[in-house]
Amino acid sequence: MDFVTEGFHHVTLVSRDAQRTVSFYRDLLGLRLIKKTVNFDIPTTYHLYFGDATGSPGTILTFFEWPDAKRGAYGVGGIHHIALKTADDDTLLKWKRRLTDHGVTVSGPYNRGWFHSIYFRDPDGQVLEIATLGPGYDLDEPIESLGQQLKMPPEGQLRGHRDEAGIAAQTWEEPVPEITSDMDLRMIHHVTGMTDDLVKADEFYHQALGMRLIKQSINQDDPDTLHYFWANYDGTRVAPASSMTLFGWPETARHASEGVGQTHHVAYRATDSDQQEAWREYLLGLGYEVSPVMDRNYFRSIYFRTHDGLLVEIATDPPGFSVDGDVDTLGTEVKLPPWLEPQRSEILAGLRPLT
Ligand SMILES: [Fe+2]
Ligand SMILES: [Fe+2]
């Protein structure tokens, strides 16, 4: 392991309607809109960033607005869902109540063993999960030897053996009109995708990103298939905002198709540009087709694809989101990188204002 990522930098999704996305992620889920900018490769469209107060790596979800694109579909080489963390079982039920009161269909809470989870979709169809921080991956094996053997979940957690009616009936007794501080969602708990080759996936996450297998198990909703987890793990702790998980699908399974309601790419952290440059050379040496370094204004990025087609980015922590505005006013006005500033009036004329 020449290079070890700290964990996720951000995940980028595709939305059909930027205003609807702001209403959902900022107003309903309580993420901070930290940057309104345009897609640097297609400057006529929005690129929105949400996260914690400062846009810390590991808290960031970003959205390309593609108003005319078709709906995407998950599959091999794509992402099934993104999980945001919540404190505990009480806050999980508060989220279920708040979401259902706003007309969002929620399933769960499901006991996944290592965490407890609810599931729902965003307005474009992206599957989202909210998951508790505990009990943790060391629930069923010692922290110093995670991921070395297949761990079967208790039968009662598997589809077909659960009290689905009892689960569906659970909710918080009172309406939850305000997001209290204990409910904070602003950190990626894990990201889950699909692959048709878990062996190659293990090689990829280990060699390319320095992550380690922390759990070999089965998909509790489809118990005939495997479910593997990787993370930044040093034998004593699993780093927060670093768990990538994959369902093992057969080779004949459908592949993901890019589009609205799907994840576009997953970005991992590099500490700085020097590390990123060296990492790029290392990845080229492993045979990956890696893009040149791109200036994304708030970070620098390189891109490449996994064996099954997932687009992966490595993004630097610096300079961060206060490079073009102070923390108090993040997200309030449309920001453009220096090279697009000369076209500000034309660009803004083509964008629908967001409230
Ligand atoms: Fe999940
Ligand atoms: Fe990105």
Q: What does this entry look like structurally?
A:
The structure is a single chain. The chain is α+β, with helices and mostly antiparallel strands and 355 residues long. It has six helices and 16 strands. The protein has an eight-stranded mixed sheet. Strands 6-7-8-5-9-12-11-10 form an eight-stranded mixed sheet. It is globular and about 60 Å long. The mean pLDDT is 97. The chain binds fe (ii) ion (2 copies). One fe (ii) ion binds at residues 81, 83, 129, 190, 192.
Looking at the structure, what is the overall shape?
globular
Distance separating the two termini? 46 Å
Which hetero compounds are present in the coordinates?
A: fe (ii) ion
Q: Helix proportion of residues, in percent?
A: 10-25%
| Category by helix and strand content | alpha+beta
Q: What value does the average pLDDT take?
A: 97
Strand order of the largest sheet: 2-3-4-1-13-16-15-14
The biggest beta sheet is recorded as:
8 strands, mixed
Number of helices: 6
- Helix and strand succession? EHEEEEHEEEHEHEEEEHEEEH
Low-confidence stretches: none
Q: How many strands?
A: 16
Strand content: 25-35%
Query: Rg, please?
Result: 20 Å
